[in-house]
């Protein structure tokens, strides 16, 4: 695998126009690039961490929430997926699942090496899917791994995959999700996909209103477990129906094995937004 070393975080302001151009030029492919983006000396800005914690519902602390390093990896993910040899246009891709494994607690005062690559292009009933793997390392040992699964619609097998039956919603909490949460999360994450920002821009992509970021819903769900999480765990989610903003959502959780299962539903009708689990390592 070829390694592309970066000395600073890629500029998202220059990558979004590149993503737009890619949507006009790229149509698909059968192989993913064998390039890994690597950035050493990654450190956390305390003010940025505090802003992220406030938007997502975490308490202020010098221990990083398990979802926070995804924000550090996002510019490298964007850089990877806007390269000329990446087969799919970034716009229109659907984030269908995310699995994060934290091998130990990560602290604000640490310095990390970040690695990002794409792998495992495979069929999906609605098109093709693949994984973007992001890793944080300390002294060459992975301490955190993020697997983001993306779907490129079109030319799918049509064969439905087996899914477990979701429980009927019995909420542990009701979320009142404000209409500006997409813009607020975009400020801390850098993810300024127009479907999250305003109703007008979301309607251009077929949504009746702006929708919440999937990674915000995952982070807000994880925040509900603060104070109960072990130092090492995996939090795994599948993104279902989008959260149309503003929203009223029902969050429910229950113990399961060595951890918990959780779901987020539309509070007004039984349509799932997210299902997930937290499992101790």
TrEMBL record:
Highest taxon of the lineage: Bacteria
Give the source species. Answer: Amycolatopsis oliviviridis
Question: Would you tell me the protein name for this molecule?
Answer: MaoC-like domain-containing protein
Query: Which InterPro entries does its entry note?
Result: HotDog_dom_sf, MaoC-like_dom
The organism's lineage is: Bacteria, Bacillati, Actinomycetota, Actinomycetes, Pseudonocardiales
The segment(s) forming the MaoC-like domain are 183-260
Name the family the entry cites.
Belongs to the enoyl-CoA hydratase/isomerase family.
The record's PANTHER family line, in alphabetical order, gives:
3-HYDROXYACYL-THIOESTER DEHYDRATASE HTDX-RELATED, 3-HYDROXYACYL-THIOESTER DEHYDRATASE X
Do you know which Gene3D superfamilies this protein is assigned to?
Hotdog Thioesterase
């Amino acid at each position: 695998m070829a390694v592309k070393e970066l000395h600073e975080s890629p500029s998202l302001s220059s990558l979004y126009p590149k993503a737009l151009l890619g949507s006009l030029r790229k149509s698909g492919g059968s192989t993913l690039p064998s390039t890994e983006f690597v950035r050493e000396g990654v450190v956390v800005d305390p003010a940025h961490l505090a802003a992220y914690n406030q938007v997502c519902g975490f308490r202020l602390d010098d221990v990083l929430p398990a979802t926070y390093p995804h924000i550090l990896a996002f510019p490298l993910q964007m850089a990877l997926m806007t390269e000329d040899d990446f087969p799919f246009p970034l716009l229109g891709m659907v984030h269908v699942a995310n699995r994060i494994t934290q091998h130990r607690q990560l602290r604000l005062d640490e310095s990390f090496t970040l690695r990002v690559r794409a792998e495992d292009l495979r069929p999906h009933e609605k098109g093709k899917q693949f994984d973007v793997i992001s890793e944080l390392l300390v002294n060459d040992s992975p301490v955190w791994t993020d697997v983001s699964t993306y779907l490129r619609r079109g030319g799918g097998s049509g064969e439905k995959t087996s899914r477990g039956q979701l429980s009927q919603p019995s909420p542990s909490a009701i979320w009142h999700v404000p209409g500006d949460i997409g813009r607020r999360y975009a400020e801390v994450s850098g993810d300024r996909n127009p479907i999250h920002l305003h109703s007008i821009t979301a309607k251009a992509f077929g949504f009746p209103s702006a929708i919440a970021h999937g990674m915000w819903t995952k982070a807000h769900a994880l925040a509900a477990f603060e104070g109960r999480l072990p130092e090492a765990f995996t939090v795994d989610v599948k993104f279902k129906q989008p959260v149309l903003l503003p929203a009223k959502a029902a969050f429910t959780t229950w113990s399961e094995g060595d951890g918990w299962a959780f779901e987020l539903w539309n509070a007004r009708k039984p349509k799932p937004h997210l299902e997930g689990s937290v499992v101790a390592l």
